[in-house]
Each structure stands twice: as structure tokens, then as C-alpha cells.
Amino acid sequence: MSRQMGDSHRRFLQTMMANGIVDEQGAKTLYQRCCEIHNTQYAPDKLDEFIDILNSRLQPLFMQIRKGMSEENGQQYYALVNMAETDVTRMSSDYADNELELFQKTMDLIVSSENGKACSTDILNSADTLTTKKLKKSETEHLLQRLVHDKWLTEKRGEYTLSTRCIIEMEPYIRTMYQDQVKVCHICHNFAFQCQICENPACSIKIHNPCVARYFKGRSEPRCPACDDFWPHEIPEVRRPHSHSRK
């Protein structure tokens, strides 16, 4: 594969800029389509090399296409990341100061929780504690809808979690701001917010649900991979990958 950036790379980048994040299967399909449209060499196992060429050109612009895992289903995703800013100020062009403050408070709630989730009631209550301009209930609800639409948060049954895009793009900020609170998954070594926890107080490792499913698959008596205590949690089934371009 040529190390030169061509029209196929530019088309791939344009789509990434429009979508922000795509899952691995979506990225592979996009890579193939871009190569076919511009009549360039396509090698099914060279997606990461193709992206490396793009990243070498994006580096002076403080941009990068990063790979990360969805905590919900274990699928790999590719996200276009702004490297110039490492905290929530990267969102300042789209959100007002009080909206960013509420987003930070929402992150605080999610990171400090045991299950990596924050309920809408707690977030609405946080809106009353803003040091910037207060937000009305209707304004807070609308803001949460925008944060989900813009793929910073994920919502299910009134509970909010950090989206895959947020975890990938905010990784340096999360690592700095929550260094004493955030643990990584014992299996995949990515941040672990939505996960199962070993109940041995001397251990307390965390494992993502998809990693739990894969690690304990076929084992009649699941035991903690770190301390060998019995793993008492329900073992989820391994989920088959299916294409979701936006997460």
C-alpha cells in the first residue's frame, strides 16, 4: 500500500468529519468504498495502515483518528479527535458556559457512581447548583437531548452514561481529572465505567460486561482472573457485532 495520501484518504476523512465516529465494520466498509471510487489499491487487512497515513497528515492540525471500545457491546469504534484541547473547552463553540458546567457535573456523577450511570433526577438537581447562569428544568432536559444527539452522552430509560465518542475523545481529561476514581478493565485495559466488580475487598478489579462475556464463556465456575475468588455476577451472553455507525 502506498504511504502517500490520496483522494481515497480525503473522502474517508470527509465522512469521518461528518459523522464524528463510526464502528469498525462501518470503517472497513467506508475504506473499501473509498478505494473503489478512486480506483486505488484495497487490502482488507490494511485499514489501520490506511488510517495511519491520514493521521500523519492530521498531526500538524492537532487532529487524530483514534480507536476505542464501546462499553455497551464491546465493538471497536473509530473517532475523529481534536488534540488541541484536552478538556471540555473543546465543546465551547457549541455550548454555553453554564451548559458546559452542567456537562462537567454530569461527568462527575457518572464517574463517581458504582455503575457508570447518572439518573436524570440527579442531573436535574445538579442544575440548581451551577455557579454560572442557572438552567431551568426545560432547558436542562433540552441540553441533555443535545448532548445525546451530539454523541457526548448515551441515554437509556432515564439513565445517562458517557458515550463511546466521549470516552475516546476525553481520555486525557478523564485521566487527569479523575485519576483517583477511574479504574481500567482488567481484561482490555480501557476505562471501566459500566462494568462488573470483584466482590473481594482486597481485589475489587473491574471488568466490562462484554469482556466478562468473552472471558468467562464456556466456564462452568467463573473465578476472578486476579484473585481467583468465585465471580458471583450474572455472565452476559457474547453479543454478535452489528453495524452502528454512530455511538
UniProtKB/TrEMBL annotation:
Its main location: nucleus. Pfam families: SMC_Nse1 (PF07574), zf-RING-like (PF08746). Its EC number is 2.3.2.27. GO terms for biological process: double-strand break repair via homologous recombination. The keyword Zinc applies. Keywords: Chromosome, DNA damage, DNA recombination, DNA repair, Metal-binding, Nucleus, Telomere, Transferase, Ubl conjugation pathway, Zinc, Zinc-finger. Residues 185-227 form the Non-structural maintenance of chromosomes element 1 RING C4HC3-type domain. It is an enzyme of class 2 (transferase). GO terms for cellular component: chromosome, telomeric region; nucleus; Smc5-Smc6 complex. GO terms for molecular function: ubiquitin protein ligase activity; zinc ion binding. CDD domains: RING-CH-C4HC3_NSE1. RING-type zinc finger-containing E3 ubiquitin ligase that assembles with melanoma antigen protein (MAGE) to catalyze the direct transfer of ubiquitin from E2 ubiquitin-conjugating enzyme to a specific substrate. Involved in maintenance of genome integrity, DNA damage response and DNA repair. Belongs to the NSE1 family. This is Non-structural maintenance of chromosomes element 1 homolog.
